[in-house]
Specification:
Elements lengths: L7 E2 L8 E2 L11 E4 L10 E4 L26 E2 L9 E4 L3 E2 L4 E8 L6 E7 L2 E6 L13 E6 L7 E8 L8 E9 L5 E3 L2 E6 L4 E6 L5 E8 L2 E9 L7 E6 L7 E6 L2 E2 L4 H4 L1 E3 L24 E12 L2 E9 L9 E7 L6 E7 L6 E9 L15 E8 L3 E8 L6 E2 L14 E8 L4 E10 L2 E9 L6 E7 L6 E7 L2 E10 L5 E6 L4 E3 L12 E6 L10 E7 L8 E2 L1 E2 L3 E8 L2 E8 L7 E6 L3 E3 L15 E9 L4 E6 L2 E6 L4 E4 L2 E4 L7 E7 L3 E6 L4 E6 L9 E6 L3 E11 L7
Parallel strand pairs: 23-41
Antiparallel strand pairs: 1-15, 2-14, 3-13, 4-6, 5-13, 6-12, 7-12, 8-11, 8-13, 9-10, 9-12, 14-21, 15-20, 16-19, 16-22, 17-18, 17-20, 23-24, 24-25, 25-26, 27-28, 28-29, 29-30, 31-32, 32-33, 33-34, 35-36, 36-37, 37-38, 39-40, 40-42, 40-43, 43-44, 45-56, 46-56, 47-52, 47-56, 48-49, 48-55, 49-50, ...
Bound molecules: beta-D-fructofuranose.
């Protein structure tokens, strides 16, 4: 492997260098001012609400994960959220060492969220957290003040939180007087590469302070990302796809970097991504749930069928394990089961981060972004800047995408309006877009129309839904003459009703959606051919995969239907039939009755990736317990209730019968009952060595008309 190193650019602004001392407990004559390991503030004085009754033990309710502090306790002014204020003041102490070092994180506001050193009541030194915009990180990072000039004087430390908006809090820990001068942080550093290979591999340290990294080509910054740089040993490697810049000189420029950091020098060019030999074989890689090669994913975006392929775009942080740097990732499939990840198609730009949205095939070329022979695929997305606006991008091959020159196509209504979902409304021959808008503290869905995807007119609104709307028509019980509209959003709750091309008229209250956990922001595919006619949904499956170079995944594809019940038409979720292609060995058991004394019919089986189907008529008071690799699924016939690892969901019998399908992957379960009226997604990590399955009856019998176990193949390519 040939590694081409460019020149290391000299640090540009040594002037604004900060001093960094890594605080080491009690070593070399260090004097501890406070490590916040006590249960109360002790001799320190707190005012207001923000700091709480004493040191916090890590992350507080509603806060992103706080890390980078030492021990158990720290100062965290997020008590009661960002809205609270207060101060925390030390008793006077004498300055007896050259430096005061500390760990600091949270908001970046020298007046409102700061750590101050006071001498004679005057502020002589200040520090803040690194965050001044949405996103960012709760990690604390080391900083230090040079206080040599105040030697022998009495001083006080004051921690201030008078901010009430976003990032209106501060985190501090491990305040130490020390003479140890360690690494400096230089204000800016960079490295130039002559791009000869496909990828730059970038070392990442989870929880390290996020630094702003600019990618500069021909003197122009093409993208900026916030990255947790590994100064030494990385936790994992991200990659930046340099395909389109081959032969060019590219500079990566970091806003702040430790002088001793190996980050820039460890970056290497290669035609493969670091760790590719292990790709898709990682221990916590869901084997039939899509996840990104590297980094974080949340919402599915731009689900569309175009030129024979299903396209799955998704909220992607290519350079971090947690949320951040929102790009649109992209994968394609011919069956929605076997996915091939291509590169990201939308990167943050001057309008902001690339938030969620949808895709449509503009078959009549109404936008003029393609030709009648080559109808364009049009993506509509939110650019999350200030203002927050809606934009479009297009492609005529489903590979290369171009942002529209006339962006934005919808201006801000209120800050944070987002997640456009576009459909073609055939009866009125126009595009209809649903958009989430918070108006006067009310969560609303705004309905817009357009004839060309570039000019949009507000038509109406429906209240009561938050984020990621979706809107589609479905036949009731498969009868095309009885169609209803469904309005749903991120939580998967929904309303059924009518739509006249302008206004949605609900005929139900807001109804519960999925009945499990960790399923959010689902979206349905656009442009599935009429001859197929299915409405298929994929949701963000919140499967946390610690220790992996990727995080989160997608649900399996789910077919949605409206089914008549006593209460009216209700949504059902069922696994798409394409998943059958994963069956390897299948075993069907003979129909029969099980009672509490029966042995476990599944005792001889061992399976890692499983689909289990059971259809049974349960006796009145019976409890049927299925276990799959340590997960416990109980059907209580008296309560007509399903329990999945203790989480309860209503599951009515249908004509006296229950049908349960269980999918088990390395990171989660998806369980279907009551003909799809009950869908229970559940993040769950089975122990690798536990491959057992069982069925056991309690308080009665059950007559099984079907019992099948399918072992499943991995859906990933064998590389
Ligand atoms: C939902 C969401 C969307 C937003 C996106 C940002 O999970 O908050 O509303 O567009 O995530 O990643």
């Amino acid at each position: 492997m040939q590694i081409t190193f460019g020149t290391i650019l000299k640090p540009l602004a040594m002037l604004s260098a900060l001093l960094l001392a890594s605080p080491c407990r009690g070593a070399g004559g260090d004097l501890l001012i406070n490590d916040f390991e006590g249960d109360s503030w002790g001799s320190w004085t707190a005012t207001g609400e923000a700091f709480g009754p004493g040191p916090a033990h890590g992350t507080l309710t509603g806060q992103m994960v706080v890390d980078g502090f030492l021990g158990r306790g720290l100062v965290n002014s997020f008590h009661g959220g960002d809205g609270t204020t207060g101060t925390l003041t030390s008793p006077p102490f004498k300055i007896e060492r050259r430096f005061i070092s500390f760990l600091i994180g949270g908001g970046m506001d020298l007046k409102k969220t700061c750590l101050n050193l006071l001498i004679d009541g005057k502020v002589v030194r200040q520090a803040t957290g690194p965050n001044d915009r949405s996103g960012g990180s709760e990690a604390l990072g080391p900083e230090a003040w040079d206080v040599a000039e105040f030697s022998g004087q009495m001083a006080v430390i004051e921690i201030l939180d008078s901010a009430t908006g976003g990032w209106g809090h501060i985190n501090v820990d491990q305040i130490v007087q020390t003479d140890t001068k360690t690494a400096k942080v230089v204000a800016s550093a960079g490295r130039e590469f002559l791009i000869q290979k496909r990828y730059l591999n970038l070392p990442i340290k989870n929880g390290a302070p996020r630094r702003s990294v600019s990618t500069i080509i021909d003197g122009r910054t093409v993208v900026m990302n916030d990255i947790e740089l590994a100064n030494a040993e990385p936790d994992w490697w991200a990659f930046m796809d340099m395909g389109e810049w081959r032969g060019k000189k590219v500079t990566l420029q970091v806003d702040k970097l430790r002088e001793d950091s190996k980050w820039l020098s460890s970056i290497y060019e290669s035609d493969s991504i670091q760790g590719s030999e292990n790709l898709y074989k990682e221990p916590l890689r869901g084997q039939f749930h899509f996840s990104s090669k590297r980094g974080w994913n949340n919402d599915p975006n731009g689900l569309v069928f175009y030129k024979g392929e299903y396209h799955l775009h998704y909220q992607h942080n290519p350079y971090g394990w947690p949320w951040g740097n929102m790009h649109w990732g992209h994968a394609v499939s011919r069956d929605m089961v076997h996915w091939k990840e291509l590169g990201d198609v939308l990167a943050p730009d001057k309008f902001g981060l690339m938030f969620s949205g949808s895709a449509v095939v503009d078959a009549r070329n109404t936008s003029g972004l393609g030709t009648p022979q080559h109808p364009p695929l049009v993506l509509m997305y939110t650019a999350e800047g200030d203002p927050t606006v809606q934009c479009i991008a297009s492609s005529t091959d489903g590979r290369a995408f171009k942002k529209y020159n006339g962006n934005p196509v919808v201006r801000q209504i209120t800050r944070g309006n987002r997640d456009p979902k576009v459909i073609w409304h055939a009866p009125t021959k126009k595009w209809v877009m649903t958009l989430y808008v918070e108006k006067d503290k009310v969560h609303t869905i705004h309905f817009f129309s357009s004839t060309n995807l570039t000019q949009w007119t507000l038509m109406s609104r429906t209240d009561g839904f938050f984020e990621c709307p979706d809107f589609f028509e479905l036949p009731v019980d498969g009868d095309a003459t009885r169609k209803k509209w469904v309005l749903t959003a991120a939580s998967s709750e929904y309303m059924v009703g009518r739509f006249d091309g302008t206004t949605f008229t609900p005929e139900t209250a807001k109804l519960p959606g999925h009945r499990g956990q960790g399923f959010y922001a689902a979206q349905t595919f656009s442009d599935i051919p009429k001859s197929d006619g299915r409405r298929i949904q994929i949701g963000w499956f919140q499967t946390e995969t610690r220790g992996m170079p990727f995080n989160q995944s997608m649900s399996i594809p789910l077919e949605l239907r409206l089914l008549t019940t006593q209460e009216g038409p209700r949504l059902t979720w069922t696994p798409v039939r394409e998943l059958n292609s994963l069956h390897t060995t299948s075993k069907s058991f003979k129909p029969g009755t099980l009672d509490p004394e029966s042995g476990n019919p599944l005792s001889g089986m061992a399976a890692e990736l499983v689909e289990l189907q059971a259809e049974f008529e349960p006796g009145a008071a019976s409890e049927t317990t299925l276990t799959v690799r340590g997960a416990t699924i109980i059907y209580d016939a008296a309560k007509q209730e399903l329990s999945v690892n203790g989480h309860k969901a209503p599951a009515p019998l249908r004509q006296g019968r229950q049908r349960i399908t269980i999918f088990c992957d390395r990171t989660g379960l998806e369980i279907f009952a009551s003909d799809g009226l009950t869908y229970v997604p559940m993040p769950f990590i089975p122990k690798p060595e536990n491959l057992t399955l069982s069925i056991q009856m309690k308080h009665g019998t059950a007559t099984f008309t079907k019992l099948q176990v399918h072992k499943l193949a991995s859906a990933w390519p064998k590389n």
